[in-house]
Predict the 3D structure of the following.
Amino acid sequence: MGVSESPGSDARTEEGYFPVGSATRRVVGDPAALIGGISALFLQTLHPRAMAGVDQHSSFPDDFWPRLQRTAGYVTTLAFADTATADASVARVRRIHKVVRGTDPVTGRTYSADDPELLRWVHVTEVSSMVGAVRRLGVIDADEEDRFLAEQVRAGALLGATDLPTSRDEVEQYFADIRPQLVASPTAKLAARRLAVAPLPLRLELLTPARPVWTTVAAVAIGMLPGWARDLYGIPRPPDWIAEPVTTAGLWSLRTALFGARRILRRPDPPR
């Protein structure tokens, strides 16, 4: 496993922790990474203590979209902002983490959001899912995938995560090691169902085909889960020769739509 980098290291620059040309900017700036991030949410619920923190310290459905927007905003800020802005965002998250603690009813163990073990879980699921989505479409190759994972050690360290994987091989080993701790508890299954049929703002329900779009997003996100995660949820697995092309085609369609939305809203692509 890789070693964490200190937030106060020479990595700090006025350009940001991840300068133009970095694998981080290339991956995070691609719309497919957003769908990968949704897939990570389905994966994260399988860790009982991590799930307990979300379940006991969030209000669903009221906090669903604000929480999702905050998470996406944090990831993009870290990837593209200057270091002062990134550090301010990190400080806000760390303040929130300090009060998120309690007891997990599934395992009976205590948890805290600033526990390096739980931070490692959230970090690995997030970065591996994002880069996996972009890699699935052939936008990056295996070497750039590993560069992204290695760069993201810095992001994890800023929040206090330690012993983070720096390559796809190390990610796979991490998942193999932690798998015995994972369980699709009733709370996890409820969270996954809520995510699959997430509450949509009324204006979107009335004015746009938002529900079918979100259903597609959720289906693609679930399709990108590792096979062992789908098995834990009890999700039937069609043959890979059917499931993989369908998931990839769905991801391509969503990526194209998100690029189109950027143009309609006149939002320039972030500098990579």
In short: The chain is about 65% helix and 0% strand. Strands lie at 101-103, 110-112.
